[in-house]
Amino acid sequence: MAYAARALGVKAVIVMPGNAPAVKREATLALGAEIILVGPSSSERQAKAEELAAQRGYVIVPPYNDEKIIAGQGTMGLEILEDLPGVETVIAPVGGGGMISGIAAAIKLSRPEVKVIGAEPDFAADAQASLRAGEIVQFSPEQVTRTMADGLRTQSVGAINFEHIRQYVDDIVTVSEDEIRKAMRQLSLGSKTIAEPSGAVAVAAFLFCREQLPGTTLNVAVISGGNIDPGVLAELGKGQ
Fold it and tell me: What value, to the nearest 5°, has the Cα angle with vertex 179 and ends 177 and 182?
């Protein structure tokens, strides 16, 4: 968001939870955006954004529960199909649901036989619970902040996202914190790819949830971010 605003020459104000990793705050500030910190809950971020919009005339750019955001995320699905026409299963991380909504819609509307699987941390498995229940299930801030995957700490999926998930996503699996760390380590040491915890969740699902996944041979796991805290990266290098 900060990068796009700088490229367009407009002001950006980013509302973040106070427990957001320092590396993300620093990168956002370096790109010229203003940061406003609030509490850990999704509702607090939404309320602050609405307050700022009302007071200062800002335009809100939602993180996930928005049709244009979903359409933008869908370009990833189109790129996967273009690069790997024979792909059989795509695994994507799930937080608020924007990314998997776009990817799943793009893939299923183009190639309905391709399987689309969501991946979540065990501690923030609200999307899986929602898909199983047939209605949106909300987790508490205290629950979701237990995961190291800070980008997936949303308390529930968005209403628009949930309808996309119900229509286009085949299943959602969950992974443990230890499995996330192992996936990050394997990516960094094996393929020299630096993934933050949220970015490694889909890879963790591929590595450790094979019995829950389709028995396909050409699979894609979306790595969705590399903003990793240097301390966490150092721990991975030590094998801790």
Answer: 115
Contact 149, 124 (CB under 8 A): yes
CA nearest to 5, candidates 50, 49, 58: 58
For the chain, how are helix, strand and coil distributed in percent, rounded to 5? Answer: 50, 10, 35
pLDDT in tens, 20-50: 889 999 999 999 999 999 998 888 999 999 9
Are 123 and 146 spatial neighbours (Cβ–Cβ below 8 Å)?
A: yes
Q: What is the mean pLDDT of the chain?
A: 94
Look at strands 13-17 and 34-38 and give their pairing: parallel
Block residue for tokens 């628009």: 160
Q: What is the dihedral of CA 151, 201, 232, 124, to 10 degrees?
A: 50
Summarize pLDDT for 223-232 with one digit per residue, the tens: 998 888 877 8
Q: Give dist(CA 194, CA 93) in Å, integer.
A: 16
CA dihedral 30, 28, 221, 119 (to 10 degrees): 160
| Contacts with 169 (C-beta within 8 Å, 6 or more apart), sequence order | 100, 104, 116, 117, 118, 131
Residue tagged 């240097």 (tokens) = 230
> What pLDDT, in 10s, does the model give residues 58-117?
999 999 999 999 999 999 999 999 999 999 999 999 999 999 999 999 999 999 999 999
